[in-house]
Amino acid sequence: IAGITQAPTSQILAAGRRMTLRCTQDMRHNAMYWYRQDLGLGLRLIHYSNTAGTTGKGEVPDGYSVSRANTDDFPLTLASAVPSQTSVYFCASSLDSNNEQFFGPGTRLTVL
Amino acid sequence: GQNIDQPTEMTATEGAIVQINCTYQTSGFNGLFWYQQHAGEAPTFLSYNVLDGLEEKGRFSSFLSRSKGYSYLLLKELQMKDSASYLCAVRDSNYQLIWGAGTKLIIKP
After folding, report:
1. Distance of CA B90 to the CA centre of its chain
2. CA B100 to chain CA mean position, Å
3. Which chain B residue shows the shortest CA-CA distance from A49?
4. Are β-strands A107-111 and B9-13 bridged in parallel, bridged antiparallel, or unpaired?
5. Which residue from B42, B89, B99 is facing A104, i.e. has the nearest CB?
6. What angle do CA A81, B88, A86 make, to 5 degrees?
7. How many CB pairs below 8 Å do chains A and B form together?
8. Distance of CA B29 to CAs A26, B20, B50, Å?
9. pLDDT, tens digit, for every residue of A18-68?
10. Partner-chain residue, chosen from A59, A100, A106, that has the shortest CB–CB distance to B42
11. How buried is A46 (Cβ within 10 angstroms: 0-12 exposed, 13-18 middle, 19+ buried)?
């Protein structure tokens, strides 16, 4: 692994289903983030983690949950998907909250 | 509320210079970032300003005026590969990034 990876690349999901988006980084970064990007809007922060074992809510956390069991992994779970969660999801990491963020390639999620 | 404003779209000619402006109103200020995002790809870091003035990095420069809540990204000697969206983001008092919607830059030969 080099940098930050996300899986799956894309997914079509039925409304009401549970879905986990995976994010892994090998840069030993302390901070990790989940954003969604919708046409015409800026990136919006869903959840973040400043260090392993801690998480925080961003601007649009409702309907999403995260965990940070270790430094490398930061999965995002949609407990019961709704069509408004159709978006491109980016995971990012930074050495700490003072540094620039590096982004994964994104997951394109469609909820029908 | 917090707000980042950028033009939606700009067009420039290959070899020319273009300036992309960003104005912001945020709860606190702990630095301003510029990112480049090609269509269908992830954002990539371009520059960071925390003090007033100009930061130069090759063909790209970024300027900040904290008193005016204003920044610009200057791209010189434009190349076709510079066609992309340019995202302005401000780190607020909670050390979270607030993002503008991005400026789509179209380069014409």
Report:
1. 10
2. 9
3. B96
4. unpaired
5. B42
6. 15
7. 39
8. 30, 20, 8
9. 999 999 999 999 999 999 999 988 899 999 999 999 999 999 999 999 999
10. A106
11. buried
